[in-house]
Amino acid sequence: MTGIVMEDLHHDDHRYKMAKKLMFAHWHHPQHRKVILKHIWFITNNTPGGQLHGARYNAYTNLVAMASGKPNEYLFHSTQRACPIGNHHNNTHLRNKSDCYMCPIIKNSFSLKHAKATGLFGPGIYATDHAAKADGYYKDTHGNRTRCVLLSIVAAGNTEYRYGSNPLPPSLGFHSVPGGTVLGNGSLLKYPETVVYREDAICPFILIVYDLGAPDSVYHLHGH
Ligand SMILES: [Zn+2]
């Protein structure tokens, strides 16, 4: 049976506090726009697809932990949303719109189907600890005023540093590629990304819904 897919977290919930802290930890918006939090949702992974993904993720992350001795990382990702999911307390209805990439992730986790073969580091799943960088990848085709990013737990394991863009998955013994690599022209990507090449290396667990303040706003706006 399928339970609820999203839980609207209370401000006092430890998951809410953790997600909020990570959201603001590296918030460097290029136009100095502030975050105005609306909702922080826990993604339950209670659907059949979500449960299957969770089991695959657990198996893989145990292997990565044993091989690398490294903890998992909490990283942000965003994508295209074509519906109002998460905007309001009762807005938990997953739709099957082909142009909404957010709902399938909430329902069944990440899929390499939407991985960008043209990405700098090939067809992987890209995530970052800089929430404002993930925000830059948010795209709205519904007319929402709000924006959203996903916070995921990522089995980044051993990262293989690379010089120049390289579309191939990491070599044997490595589990991810840091997108913050020195580029061919010697410049650094300003805010590093982590790229994993397996669906079971990443599991979404939080959806943060927010507004952005006016560009170069002088006010410090905190949602709650
Ligand atoms: Zn949707």
Automatic annotation (TrEMBL):
SUPFAM superfamilies: ADP-ribosylation. This is Poly [ADP-ribose] polymerase.
